[in-house]
């Protein structure tokens, strides 16, 4: 595994810089601290440097163990000295043959409170971790541990927008680092929690589903069940989440349907059924929704919108949906119909035009809640229609091409032939139109 490239900000020999940092740590720790004295036996002896046979090599690992252990006190350093001190520590660690041994504790220190900088401590720590992340080779798994620390800091600070632009690289990073499924899951869950801390519910849900996908081989495990329930609750409660096929395709969700039949029934209703089915579910399971912390009003509203989308899909042939049918299916008064249709359009489930005169909704586009055999047949039928239309267009083009060449031949043959051919071409054009 590649080491960490040297930081260009720090110059000097390892022994000299290690002694400098140890002395600084002693200053922070106060009277009685012996960090500098503790590392001295492991440093090269300058008096013997010229005697090749007796030359003593620096034991870098022994020095680093003591420096890293003592460096927890750096969080008590003055704000103006924090970044320089940590940069020096990171530079020393970069000279180890196995920097992975020392970086996890440093990341832990950086995610702890900066005692002398309550306002700017998080920003300083993020800056240090960002520098560390960018100096590590792209395919080095050490980056994974640093990124976890960064996400942990962001979760505590509620500053998720600083992480969002980098998330487009996450899947390629995970591939480069060759992470195990449990490591990838830990990272996805950390990002999901950081997003949830700033009310980025859609981002939180997205990374929770990614975490679930790492459990496909252990879909029936307790962890898979817990995460599946959490994802299902988020999907149900999110006011703008209407597509449940991303969940139903997961093995862990299929396992949940068997182990928790009531949850499976509720998922089935939101995947493929209508508002009346939800009301029947609530009658049979009268306390289920409240006991599980679900908002009944949110569920009713979402189910009405999904029902309207289903009605539009069922009316795709006629392209019209009567107000009376909407009112009955959604169990709403007639004066609220247009409001619900407008809300459905805003949600992106349907497109169309309201006709107050005809008391109907003219459908331009609708969303299919499930895409199964019936929908594939519909796609095949439309493709066949387009194919037939294209065949007819090609036939007309070929005919006109032939007529064009005949006209050219007639021009070469003489005025009489050209006149007669021109008449036939004109007649052909009239016939085509």
Helix and strand topology:
Layout: H1 14-29, H2 35-39, H3 60-70, H4 79-93, H5 103-110, H6 121-135, H7 142-157, H8 170-177, H9 181-197, H10 201-213, H11 222-237, H12 245-248, H13 251-259, H14 261-272, H15 275-284, H16 288-291, H17 296-314, E1 320-322, H18 323-330, H19 337-346, E2 350-355, E3 360-366, H20 373-413, H21 415-432
Antiparallel strand pairs: 1-3, 2-3
Distance between the termini: 73 Å
Oligomer: single chain
**Strands of the biggest beta sheet: in what spatial order?**
1-3-2
Helix/sheet category: mainly alpha
Approximate helicity band: 55-70%
Shape: elongated
Mean pLDDT: 85
**Rg from Cα:** 35 Å
Count of individual domains: 4
The low-pLDDT segments are 1-8, 423-433
By DSSP (H or I, 4+ residues per run), the number of helices equals 21
Number of strands: 3
Q: How much of the sequence is in beta strands?
A: under 5%
Write down the secondary-structure element order: HHHHHHHHHHHHHHHHHEHHEEHH
Q: Specify the biggest β-sheet.
A: 3 strands, antiparallel
Write a brief structural summary:
The protein is mainly α. Helices cover 64% and strands 4% of the residues.
Structure report:
The chain has 433 residues and is mostly helical. The chain has four domains: 157 residues, no CATH class; 111 residues; 53 residues, Winged helix-like DNA-binding domain superfamily/Winged helix DNA-binding domain (Arc Repressor Mutant, subunit A, Orthogonal Bundle), CATH 1.10.10; 40 residues, no CATH class. Helices cover 64% and strands 4% of the residues. It contains 21 helices and three strands. The N terminus and C terminus are likely disordered.
């Amino acid at each position: 595994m590649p080491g960490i490239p040297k930081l260009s900000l720090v110059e000097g020999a390892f022994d000299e810089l290690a002694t400098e940092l140890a002395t600084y740590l002693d200053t922070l720790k106060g009277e009685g601290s012996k960090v500098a004295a503790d590392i001295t036996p492991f440093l090269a002896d300058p008096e013997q440097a010229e005697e090749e046979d007796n030359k003593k090599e620096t034991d870098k690992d022994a020095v680093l163990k003591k420096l890293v252990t003592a460096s927890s006190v750096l969080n008590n350093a003055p704000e103006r000295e924090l970044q320089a001190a940590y940069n020096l520590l990171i530079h020393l660690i970069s000279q180890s043959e196995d920097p992975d041994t020392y970086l996890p504790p440093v990341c832990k220190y950086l995610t702890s409170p900066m005692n002398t900088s309550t306002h700017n401590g998080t920003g300083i720590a993020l800056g240090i971790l960002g520098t560390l992340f960018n100096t590590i080779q792209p395919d080095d798994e050490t980056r994974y541990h640093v990124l976890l620390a960064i996400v942990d800091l962001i979760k505590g600070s509620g500053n998720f927008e600083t992480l969002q632009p980098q998330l487009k690289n996450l899947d390629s990073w995970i591939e480069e680092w060759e992470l195990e499924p449990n490591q990838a899951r830990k990272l996805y869950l950390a990002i999901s929690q950081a997003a949830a801390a700033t009310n980025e519910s859609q981002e939180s849900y997205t990374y929770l589903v990614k975490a679930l996908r790492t459990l496909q081989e252990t879909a029936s495990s307790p962890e898979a069940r817990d995460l599946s329930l959490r994802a299902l609750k988020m999907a149900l409660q999110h006011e703008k989440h209407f597509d449940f096929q991303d969940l139903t395709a997961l093995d862990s969700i299929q396992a949940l349907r068997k182990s928790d039949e009531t949850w499976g029934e509720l998922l089935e209703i939101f995947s493929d059924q209508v508002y009346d089915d939800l009301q029947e579910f609530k009658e049979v399971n009268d306390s289920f929704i409240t006991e599980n912390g679900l908002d009944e009003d949110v569920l009713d509203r979402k189910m009405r919108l999904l029902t309207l989308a289903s009605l539009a899909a069922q009316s795709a042939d006629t392209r019209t949906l009567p107000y009376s049918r909407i009112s009955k299916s959604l169990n709403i008064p007639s004066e609220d119909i247009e409001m619900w249709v407008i809300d459905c359009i805003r949600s992106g489930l349907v497109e169309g035009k309201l006709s107050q005169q005809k008391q109907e909704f003219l459908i331009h586009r609708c969303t299919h809640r499930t895409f199964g055999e019936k929908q594939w047949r519909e796609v095949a039928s439309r493709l066949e229609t387009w194919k037939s239309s294209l065949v007819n267009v090609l036939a007309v083009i070929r005919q006109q091409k032939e007529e064009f060449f005949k006209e050219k031949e007639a021009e070469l043959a003489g005025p009489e032939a050209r006149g007669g051919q021109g008449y036939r071409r004109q007649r052909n054009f009239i016939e085509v139109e």
